[in-house]
Every structure is written in C-alpha cells, then in structure tokens.
Amino acid sequence: MKKILLAVLVVAGLTGALSYQPDLPLEEVKAKYGAAPSTFVEVLGMTVHVRDEGPRNDPNPIVLIHGTGSSLHTFEGWAEALRGERRVIRFDIPGFGLTGPHPEQDYRMSRYTEFVNAMLDALKVDKAIVGGNSLGGEIAWNTAVDYPKRVSALILVDAAGYPLELRDIPIGFKLAATPWLKPITTNTLPRAVTEASVKNVYGDPSKVTPELVDRYWTIALRPGNREALGQRLAIALDVEPERVKKIQAPTLILWGGQDRLIPPVNAEKFKADIPAPTQLVIFPELGHVPQDEDPKQSVAPVKTWLAGLSK
User: Fold this and answer.
1) b/e 269-287 (16+ beta carbons within 10 angstroms → b)
2) 154 φ, ψ to 5°?
C-alpha cells in the first residue's frame, strides 16, 4: 500500500511539475467571490472575508464555519434558507478562502478558537449558535469548550476531533501534506486534482459541477493559501478528543452516511461523549459536505432543531 501511495504521489508530483500555476492576484479572486453581500473586517492582523446576513435584532445569531480547503460559500444554501428569519454569519477562517494566511502562520486549534472569539467581538455578538463542517466543526466545538459563555448551542457537520484512519483522503490533501513535494504543491495546482478532491467528499460525485470546481480551484490560488494548506495539514492529526466531554452546549450532530474522510462512526462517538443534550441525524446518501451536496435536505433538521431550542 505504501508503495502504491508513493507511486501515486510521484506521478502527481511529476504531473504538477509540468503544470506550473502561479497565485492569482488577490483582487481578481475577491472580484469573483467577494462581491456583495461580502464584507471585509480587520481582525487579529487579518482582513477577514465575512458574510453577515439576516435580521440584526436576532439575539442568538448562527455562525457557520467551513472546513479545510473550503470557504464560507460552502454554507450558501443554508444561509439562503435561514437568513429570512435568523442572523447568519459566515467567514473565511485563517489559511483559507479570501482571508488567506495567518500572519504568524499558526494554525493550531487554540489560535482558531481565539480567532472565532475575536470575530464575535468584532461583529458585536455576545453569544451565538456555532456550527461547522469538518475542521470547521472541530473549531466550533473547541470554541464551545474554550469560550463556553459565547456558545449557546452547537451544530456539528461531519466534524473532526477524533483520530482518523485516513482511509480515503482527497488526493489534493495527500499532496499538500507531503513535505518533499512542497516546492511543487505551492507552485502548481492542476484543476484535475481539485476536481478529484471535491468529488472525493461528495456521496454522489456526479453532483460536482464545473462551477463548483472552479470555485474551489480559484480560491485555492489566492496568494498564500496553498502553503497554508500544507502547514495546517501537517498538524491536522494533533487532536484532543478528551475535550469533547467538556462540551456543555446542546448539540445537533449531522453526518453524511457516505463520508469516506470522517466515517459515520465518529458521529456516534460525539453523541456518546458529549454530556449535553444531543441529537444525531444521518443522511444515508450524502458525503463529507452535506451542506454543499444537498443544502435543502441537510438544513431541514437544522430548522426543526432551532425551533425546538426556542421553546
């Protein structure tokens, strides 16, 4: 197996060497994916890409955090479904999206929760329902542990937090996490690699459109994002699952039954370990990013759960 993986990496590396792709100008990427209703907020030395929509008198806004290699756009379907009645806040986390690299190149979990806390301060939000997918889910629940007074409830969507078996990592992540390929991975990005990686996290790869691939590929070419991805993946497996037992916020757990990156067994682990009230919903046909693959189906239990919280 190791020899096969090495061969795949070598071939991919050689292919990349023939596919030099420089960063795209920041303003070009922002023009395509940072137009209204996007805004930009200065936080912790970063110009953070934000979308803050819905009624400002909502006493308990919903904050949605994307995962590795993604952006706030992954929750667009949910925001569209919720913003008529709720204030919905999304932002690109350090290292990804239009926000780009952390000024200190520090992608430890403690720095991510510090960032979320600072964003809530900047947006004048005292307390929020915080949700996230994959890495975003790990950031969400760690924020609830580090800053419990600021998180009233949690929504975990195929969240990270337990050791992974790494059975089926997207090829783009494998390449970015391989140190000796760094000179290649930070200067190349074949669109086909991005397409394969996105298809890997969908339960039904046929749903992946060219427009979706273009979004991931273009945003990945924001200056500094490729290097940041490698730096984050280098420490991504350094998890502290024992902290899950410190979560005191009521939690909705959503999971794709076809998730090959973080399998559904981890959903059961969260449900068993979280001492606060939990509810678990599995989507049998969906993959690692249910909110992107089928926004309508995946947001339905969120609406029901939110209605129950307000009673």
Assistant:
1) ebeebbeeebebbebeebb
2) -125, 145
Cβ atoms of 68 and 236 within 8 Å: the answer is yes
CATH number where 257 lies: 3.40.50.1820
- Nearest in space to 129 (alpha carbons), one of 73, 188, 78, 76: 78
Residue 20: the pLDDT is 72
Strand order in the sheet with 88-91: 38-43, 46-53, 88-91, 62-65, 128-133, 151-157, 251-256, 278-283
pLDDT of amino acid 18 = 47
Quote the number of domains for the chain.
1
pLDDT along the chain (311 residues), means of 10: 46 53 94 97 98 97 97 98 98 98 96 98 98 98 98 98 71 51 60 92 97 97 94 85 97 97 96 98 98 98 94 67
Domain that holds residue 157: 2-309
**DSSP designation for 42:** E
User: Strands 151-157, 251-256: parallel, antiparallel or unpaired by DSSP?
Assistant: parallel
Identify the sign of the CA torsion 293, 283, 264, 63. Answer: positive
Cα 308 from Cα 279, distance rounded (Å)? 11
Q: What is the pLDDT of residue 60?
A: 97
CA dist 188 and 102 (Å) reads: 21
Which residues, at least 6 apart from 15, have a Cβ–Cβ distance to it below 8 Å?
Answer: 190
Please spell the DSSP secondary structure of 199-226, one letter per residue.
HHT-SSGGG--HHHHHHHHHHHTSTTHH
Three-state DSSP at 239 gives coil
DSSP 5: H
Predicted local confidence at residue 190, as pLDDT: 85
Q: Give the span between the Cα atoms of 68 and 70, in whole angstroms.
A: 5
